[in-house]
């Protein structure tokens, strides 16, 4: 899930992250990985890299497995991101990490999501968020499955969703299903921050704000705390 808050307001600071075990990460070369202990990774035949599961215990690292037994292109990835067939029990991490038969990226392929309607009443999705959502969907056809704007809370509340000024872009096959496909969208939004009137962006347990941060790759965005699951950690 990529979360975007539109409309200029005060900046946000965030503590260092503790990426939860079995959550996504980007392995060597940007391929799909999972944060697991080094012993778990070794037992699954994977390879670890340092620094991709920041602030975790020293023995928790990003584990990836570029080759597995599912055709000539078999590779381990999150099932939501596989364009081919899937085989279980060959990859490190939770059950959603499987051996994919395809070397294709496999991100998306969704029908165009419903764009929220803008309104002016309390709790309605505001025009700045609707316009931003429309721009992202147009720029990334097939990559966003569903869009959320408001929540059942009174503005200002504890979330920007309470005021209809934030958009969540769901980029995987279902709620609670992990994916690593959102990085490209998140960085595109950063690069188009002025036209989208962006306050901040959250993707993959990292946050970026134009009033605080320089334009940089997602890997250099500020880390956020572990919120407990792949949805809350915006994977």
UniProtKB/TrEMBL annotation:
<dbReference type="InterPro" id="IPR058593">
    <property type="entry name" value="ARB_07466-like_C"/>
</dbReference>
<keyword id="KW-0732">Signal</keyword>
<feature type="domain" description="ARB-07466-like C-terminal">
    <location>
        <begin position="122"/>
        <end position="235"/>
    </location>
</feature>
<feature type="signal peptide">
    <location>
        <begin position="1"/>
        <end position="19"/>
    </location>
</feature>
<protein>
    <recommendedName>
        <fullName>ARB-07466-like C-terminal domain-containing protein</fullName>
    </recommendedName>
</protein>
<dbReference type="Pfam" id="PF26571">
    <property type="entry name" value="VldE"/>
</dbReference>
């Amino acid at each position: 899930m990529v979360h975007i808050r539109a409309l200029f307001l005060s900046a946000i600071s965030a503590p260092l992250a503790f990426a939860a075990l079995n959550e996504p990460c980007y392995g060597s070369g940007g391929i799909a990985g999972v944060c697991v202990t080094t012993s778990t990774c070794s037992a699954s035949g994977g390879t670890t890299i340092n620094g991709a599961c920041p602030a975790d215990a020293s023995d928790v690292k990003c584990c990836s497995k570029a080759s597995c037994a599912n055709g000539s292109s078999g590779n381990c990835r999150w099932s939501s991101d596989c364009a081919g067939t899937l085989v279980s029990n060959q990859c490190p991490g939770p059950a959603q990490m499987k051996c994919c038969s395809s070397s294709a990226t496999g991100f998306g392929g969704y029908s165009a999501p419903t764009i929220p309607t803008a309104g002016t009443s309390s709790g309605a999705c505001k025009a700045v968020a609707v316009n931003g959502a429309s721009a992202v969907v147009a720029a990334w056809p097939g990559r966003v499955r569903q869009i959320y704007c408001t929540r059942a809370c009174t503005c200002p509340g504890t979330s920007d969703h309470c005021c209809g000024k934030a958009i969540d872009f769901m980029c995987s096959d279902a709620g609670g299903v992990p994916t690593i496909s959102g990085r490209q969208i998140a960085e595109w939004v950063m690069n188009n921050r002025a036209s989208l009137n962006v306050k901040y962006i959250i993707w993959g347990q990292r946050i970026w704000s134009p009033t605080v941060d320089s334009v940089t790759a997602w890997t250099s965005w500020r880390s956020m705390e572990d919120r407990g699951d792949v949805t809350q950690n915006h994977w």
